[in-house]
Amino acid sequence: MPTSSELPEEMAITTKFRKPTSPSNFYFCTTLFFIVLFTIPVLFLLHTPTTTSICTTLASSQNQTWSGDLQLAQFAWNHLSFFEHKTPPFALKIAVFSRKWPIGTTPGGMERHAHTLHTALARLGHQIHVFTSPPQDESTSIKSSEVNKDSHQEGAPSSPYIHFHEGEPGRWRYNKAWEQFVEENRREPFDVVHSESVALPHWLARNMSNLAVSWHGIALESLQSSIFQDLARQPDEPMSPLFNQSIQGVVPKVLNEIRFFRNYAHHVAISDSCGEMLRDVYQIPNRRVHVILNGVDEDEFREDAELGREFRRKIGIPGNASLVLGVAGRLVKDKGHPLLHEAYSRLITKYPNVYLIVAGSGPWENRYRDLGSQVLVLGSMSPSMLRGFYNAIDIFVNPTLRPQGLDLTLMEAMMSGKPLLASRFPSIKGTIVVDDEYGYMFSPNVESLLEALEEVVKEGPQRLAMRGKACREYAAKMFTARKMALAYERLFLCIKNHTFCTYP
User: Do 326 and 274 share a structural domain?
Assistant: First the structure.
């Protein structure tokens, strides 16, 4: 198989004497070439409007009149209406491969997405079978043998069937899950197979024409994130010795992904920019890339002013606080916490009555605590606890350094009626903060974030509350669990029967 270090023959031949090049320098140059190759288009996207955003705007204004082949739509399917007040034409039997399934109280983002989506599909009347790893909390586990297969014939239940494979809790073993899938598929064939990212390897998936894979992260994103993390270093901070190793290691992964992604029959991009990346860089044909934005439970995340006030009292936010900022998620470097930590530490020297609530855990937890009493670090929270958190803050901050990331927290905050302060990346500005009224954006550096924070403080909570109303209205149209489930349902129906590929 050719490698990224191979050169065309005409480039290798020369009549001039050259100083010998060491293998390490040669590999470094090759790595640098691919970094430039993949990064320049992304940096360009950060400063110019993209085709996707134009398509999104078009879809937003014409979502009632657009018609055609859904497989050719390059805007998010969330803009369209699917069987909104109707039962599905028939029930589908859907297999889901997910590395983990949320059993504990604080699941990760992808686990929460998988649970929200497939529970919603089950409630729509479809028969959902989830193949996943054993839960780490064994006291609440549901063994695969407990699934009542005879009940399948009585119609789909209101929740998915969970098939935990054997083995170590929390460790995904696709071969074990595949064996369970084959057995169930032999009993009654699945209409559609859905893989959450690469839970199902491409060598197993490549011959499955009824498979769709949702991409929650790709190697190219890791490459871009590493670059932005290094750019965020302080002038006197040395480069991490692992940086060069990670950069060199991820380039072959990007190339391998470009080669094997085409083996998946259908690709679901969770942001407009991710769809653009799959089409333009990963070279996936348009009709096999479908943009369906994630959604959150509209019953779980909603405006509740009294809950917010009670939450503030409970955690000790004083009544004279001029503004309350909030951040949630894993407290790690690639989520941008070095930026927020430094920017906020500067902000409170000028505005000491501005408070920050941190809902999450990780390496930066204690560093936030060291900033003083204006910072309240609450640790990881369950979705039910997050509802109080969102309603207690004036604005939600997301300083991510992952250009293709689209955290569920952004949508949860908007559904709770809160404006956003987020990194200016294509995924966010093209899908989330599509209107200036929804909040503020900043370049991924301390100075830009601090400038944006000062603007937020000057604007004050009353104006931010008005922005929050606009956020809630937009999110209710685009980011609900039902909206997401209906879009996936239509895609799965389209995969099963091409008649459903034509909209409306």
Answer: no
Burial code (b: 16+ CB inside 10 Å, e: under 16) for 449-467 equals bbebbbebbebebeebeeb
Looking at residue 339, which CATH number applies to its domain? 3.40.50.2000
Count the Cβ atoms, other than its own, within 10 Å of residue 143. 12
Q: Are residues 372 and 272 in the same domain?
A: no
Peptide bond into 107 cis (omega under 30): no
Q: Which domain holds residue 79?
A: 51-295+482-503
The answer to whether residue 39 sits within a structural domain is no
In tens digits, what is the pLDDT along the chain, a chain of 504 residues?
Answer: 444 434 333 333 333 334 444 444 545 445 554 554 555 444 444 443 433 343 444 444 545 589 999 999 999 999 999 976 677 889 999 999 999 998 755 667 788 899 999 999 999 999 999 999 999 865 444 444 344 444 444 445 689 999 999 999 999 999 999 999 999 999 999 999 999 998 999 899 988 999 999 998 888 888 888 888 888 887 888 887 777 777 888 889 999 999 999 889 999 999 999 999 999 999 999 999 999 999 999 999 999 999 999 999 999 999 999 999 999 999 999 999 999 999 999 999 999 999 999 999 999 999 999 999 999 999 999 888 999 999 999 999 999 998 876 899 999 999 999 999 999 999 999 999 999 999 999 999 999 999 999 999 999 999 999 999 999 999 999 999 999 999 999 999 999 999 999 999
If we measure between CA atoms, which residue out of 45, 495, 488 comes closest to residue 268?
A: 488
